[in-house]
Design a protein that fits this description.
By secondary structure, the chain is α+β, with helices and mostly antiparallel strands. It folds into 3 domains: about 130 residues; about 110 residues, Beta Barrel (Butyryl-CoA Dehydrogenase, subunit A, domain 2); about 160 residues, Butyryl-CoA Dehydrogenase, subunit A, domain 3, CATH 1.20.140.10. It is built from 14 helices and 10 strands. The structure holds flavin-adenine dinucleotide. Flavin-adenine dinucleotide binds next to strand 1, strand 3 and helix 14.
Length: about 425
């Protein structure tokens, strides 16, 4: 039931009851069951069961500060499933991109803004996985993020350097004891004001990407100031503007020395972008699940509105396109998982191809989820745009997906560059 969410009830009791999380999950499961291997279907259902119980146990209205839920979710191993965390004593099964897809689907249906916030912690986990070098404090930070004890953020964007992320202005100055002093400003960091750990990039010479380093930051240190940037379309997500003033980073927190930061920044980018694709697919399914139930129950002119072609047919188009995106994304997830299982890493050629595929799917999925959320809301009439259901959250969040993780034009730039490179080899 979601009837606690809105201030004034607009949707009738019967439909609200049917829009319950467990029924929306059922719709998703029936759509996907023929395409998922049993271990993933089981994991999806297990995660869904957790969220259904969680919602009931805490009487959740989705108006709460979702950051407070993270420790309990983390205890279940549901912050990230991208990696195998055996080396830090955690044995979560299944893991890999397909498992991550399932985790995100279940989380997004429960609460889309929570799913997006958790995604930024995953972005801080990935570089620590690659560069902990068994240093105690890095392993500690990694574990705390994976089990949800702490929240993570990744700091790339600056007020004057957005799409042109490599030419940074934030300066790192190496000290004689191997520590670094950081000065500069970062902006639009998901989780920024809530983060306990941040992974941040800075250069030793302004605008010189080849002098970039990568730093792990404990946000309780002196010299870190985080302010909240309000993005009205995602009112419960905390986005930050961080000012670094002589912030001292001890040597054991330096994940990449000047010169290594740039390749560290790019090495995880494909999978990070792919994470956004999955998030977009989950948001589209979430919107579809609402519209599917609503238009099957809502009557006008003595008929369920689904039966009017003007409602039912456009919904089928949105469903078909979302299924297309899902099958494409599942296929890529499976390929990534197979390669990782076989080789323990992604082969160079495959990773190059994945860069373009991630851009293709990111741009298509960002556009699609925005359209699907809007059209589903539209098919639900007033019920789709009032605050009684998560449609309201979905309308907001899908409007920003083209920007984060590289804007539409940057994805187009990557793709058109690839077309040029392809032309040179034919
Ligand atoms: C909700 C949200 C969450 C975010 N989370 C994070 C985060 O966790 N960490 C982080 O570091 N950053 C984060 N960002 C920042 C995000 O990555 C940047 O906003 C994005 O890269 C664009 O930078 P910008 O906002 O400065 O826009 P600009 O780069 O100024 O772009 C403005 C416009 O110009 C276009 N443009 C720029 N260059 C070109 C070009 N060469 N060709 C064609 N068009 C171009 C852009 O596509 C865009 O339309 C987040 C942003 C949002 C909105």
């Amino acid at each position: 039931m979601q009837n606690q969410k809105g201030k004034v009830q607009c949707v009738n009791d019967e439909i609200l009851e049917k829009l319950a999380l467990k029924n929306r999950y059922k719709f998703l499961n029936y759509c996907l069951m023929s395409y998922l291997k049993p271990e993933y279907m089981d994991f999806l259902k297990e995660t869904q069961k957790f969220y259904v119980r969680f919602e009931k146990k805490h009487n959740i209205t989705h108006n709460e500060d979702f950051y407070e839920w993270i420790p309990e979710i983390g205890e279940q191993g549901l912050i990230t499933r991208v990696n195998n965390f055996k080396e830090i004593g955690l044995n979560f099964e299944p893991y890999g991109m397909t498992a991550e897809f399932m985790r995100i689907l279940a989380t997004d249906f429960f609460d889309p803004q929570l799913a997006m916030g958790m995604g930024a912690t995953v972005l801080a986990v990935n570089p620590l996985m690659l560069h902990h070098e068994n240093v105690e404090i890095r392993l500690k930070a990694l574990k705390e993020l994976v089990i949800g004890k702490k929240i993570g953020a990744i700091c790339i964007t600056e007020p004057e350097r957005g799409s042109d992320a490599v030419h940074m202005e934030t300066i790192s100055e190496k000290q004689s004891d191997g520590s670094f002093l950081l000065n500069g400003v970062k902006i639009y960091q998901t989780n920024g004001p809530k983060a306990d750990w941040a992974v941040l990039y800075a250069v030793s010479e302004k605008d010189q990407g080849n002098t970039m380093g990568q730093f792990l930051i404990d946000t309780s240190w002196d010299g870190w100031k985080a302010e909240r940037v309000e993005i009205p379309w995602t009112p419960r997500l905390h986005i930050g503007k961080e000012t670094l003033t002589n912030l001292r980073v001890p040597p054991e927190y330096v994940l990449g020395q000047p010169g290594q930061g740039r390749s560290h920044l790019f090495e995880g980018l494909n999978l990070e972008r792919f994470g956004i694709v999955i998030l977009n697919a989950a948001e589209a399914w979430n919107a579809l699940s609402h519209a599917f139930i609503y238009v099957n129950m809502r009557k006008q002119f003595n008929q369920e509105i689904l039966k009017f072609q003007g409602v039912g047919f456009p919904l089928t188009d949105l469903w078909a396109e979302t299924m297309n995106l899902t099958l494409a994304a599942l296929n890529v997830c499976q390929l990534i998982d197979d390669k990782m299982k076989e080789k323990g890493t992604l082969p160079k050629e495959f990773n190059l191809a994945l860069g373009v595929t991630a851009s293709q799917l990111k741009s298509v999925s960002a556009k699609l989820c925005e359209r699907v959320a809007y059209e589903c809301a539209n098919l639900m009439g007033g019920a789709g745009v009032c605050d009684n259901t998560l449609m309201h959250d979905l309308l907001g969040i899908t409007r920003i997906q083209e920007i984060g993780g590289g804007t539409r034009q940057i994805q187009q730039y990557i793709m058109s560059y690839a077309l040029r490179q392809l032309f040179k080899v034919i």
